[in-house]
Amino acid sequence: MKRLAMIAIICLAARGTSEAASPLLRAGDYVAIVGDSITEQRLYSMFIEDYLLMCKPAADLQVTQFGCNGDSANWFVKRMANNFLPFRPTVATTSFGMNDGVYGPLTPAIAKLYRESQKSIVQNMKKAGVRVIVVGSPGCLETELAFGGDRARAEMYNRTLAGLRDIARSVAEEEGVTFANVHDPMLAVMAKAKARYGKEYRFTLDGGHPEPNGHLVMAYSFLKALGCDGDIGTITVDLTAGKAEASSGHKILSCADGRVAIESSRYPFCFCCDPAKQEVTRAVLEFFPFNEDLNRFRLVVRNIPGIRSIPGKRVKVAWGPAASEFSAAQLERGINLAAEFLDNPFCEPFGKVQEQVAAQQLAEVALVKEQMNSLGVLGELASREQDAIERLRAVLVKRDHDFREAPAACVKPVRHVIKIEPVR
Asked: How many angstroms separate the first and last alpha carbons of the chain?
């Protein structure tokens, strides 16, 4: 019951303030991920791009990350005309607040500046044609590590971040855009993990910058806010008839003797990490419903020969390097392959695409922070050379488009086999 209650809290916290009548993402959308040094860590932004490229909630999606260390909503307003708007994204997520609170109690002046800055960001994005805007709340501090282990100060600043969360939510409501609550799911998952593994369990590097486990929770919150429904696909097998069917994004190549060969252009999300380390993405999967909500690749098996005549008999399912046993009732209801088989045939191709995404987002740090920013400085110094500066800016925007081509080109259809047989 405690686990169900925790999942319910996380699901409710991750909902945005606007409910879309249709999916928010459209084919060909270009998604900008904006934020401070936590975004510049290039982890939650990488997980989001991984998901959009490979899990394909819509076709032909592209992503650029605009993380900048030390940034705040106020500073982003000042530079977004130069460093952001020329890219012309159609979708944007924002993640500000950690620096906006100035690491002290939330004062009226700080709250006012944060509210005005968030509203300016949203309004400037709307004017520039950004169709979908997700205002993210700040995350949270890990009280055991933040401020050198000063727990009282860390708890005080978490209250400040909670206040900024509420302001971000109200701005989203006032502007009619979507809100992503990052703060509460991170606190909830961190508390659950520490209750299980002890206070020494690491969720952040330094109290504020998350480890990969924390970034996966951030990615979950933003992907839910973007309207991703998590339906990767369904493979339905009738063993008696020797037939199989697949949903969109997957193609049955053959089905005989309990062996189903499939070609999939949509991947389940994979967790490419050392499972022995506590700070990796796999380490928090039991504490929030990432696979249930965002990563459902279902196998349904019907008419298993002879299974009814032997009560309690199990059925073995082998997929790639792993195999597991299930009851006939479980298979008839359907199992989530992505959750049951963390090591699966998609891990290697997923990892190759992720390497390209990581290289792309690393290159974008220099392009956005240094090269685009230098053009803004040049524009102030050489007002008569605006045409030349605009040409250079267009070159840099085109360069980023080229960066995005490499990961997209790596997403190839994957051929894999599922083997189903009663346990003898």
From this structure: 36
Q: Is residue 169 part of a domain?
A: yes
pLDDT band at 273 (very low <50, low <70, confident <90, very high): confident
Tens-digit pLDDT profile for residues 38-53: 999 999 999 999 999 9
Residue 328 lies inside a defined structural domain of this protein:
no
Task: Return the beta strands (E) in 218-295 as ranges.
Answer: 231-238, 243-246, 250-256, 259-264
* 232 Cβ contact list (under 8 Å, min separation 6): 55, 249, 266, 267, 268, 269, 295, 296, 297, 338
DSSP 267: P
In this structure, what token pair is assigned to residue 138? 């700040």
Rounded to the nearest 5 degrees, what angle is found at the Cα of 166, between the Cα atoms of 136 and 280?
Answer: 45
| CATH number for position 215 | 3.40.50.1110
Which structural domain range is residue 179 located in? 2-225
Question: What pTM does this model have?
Answer: 0.93
* Number of structural domains found in the chain: 1
**Does residue 39 sit within a domain?**
yes
